[in-house]
Amino acid sequence: MDNSPGFADPARHYTLLGADGRDYRSPEKGTLGGHRRSRIYGRLDCPSALQAIARGGYVAQRVFFADAAVAEQAGYRPCGVCLREAHRVWKRRRDDPPPIRPAVPNVSAEVTALIRLATARSANAISLGGGRQPEAQYALDALEAAWTARGGHILTRVDWPAQAASWNRQAHRLTDWAPDLWIIADTPGGWAPVARRLHITARWSPDRTLGFGFLDTIETIRLAGPDLLDGMTGSTTSGGRWWIRGNDIHRNQHPTLFAAP
Prior knowledge:
It is built from eight helices and 13 strands.
């Protein structure tokens, strides 16, 4: 249909391009034009577009949009000739995109459960440890904020890499302050070598160690080794409780019941 400049004719319909990149019929004319192959949109009186039309090499690829928002949703960028400011903004977004925040889990139920477990053991001064992945550090951030907000003390916070020649330094930092409890956020594979090193120090006890839901799996026991984590407990992702006895892991998914059988 005709989409030449001028007032809309009530008896006519116009073909516009939608945000999904598909043509649709509209009783209103488009306010902006575009070039399908180059994916550029601009004003209907753009000098660059009019010159191209005059040369006869543009019309077959011409499309029209209701507004700029639809054009950009369809994947078109502003013309650098007739929409200079919009083009500058687009180019700035392209060349300097905002940082991508890593996806992080919702750990509020786990934090509440871990604080409940720690309080039941009359803990006040605790040490935190975890892997360097964003999910683990986010979990520890949330726990640290909640624990200190209620008047608790953090003696130390230690992180460790997924691979290392030895986790001796991290193990000593975790045990130097003799905390009431340790709270761990890591994957089973990340926690296992650290736990083995802690076991060697003889100053760490699994029954004084709590863990986030990352460790709520039989893999935690298998990777650490037989009986090494006996007595360790923690929160499930839903706020229930898990605990290790020997070489098995047990669970109580109810968020208010923490006593082991």
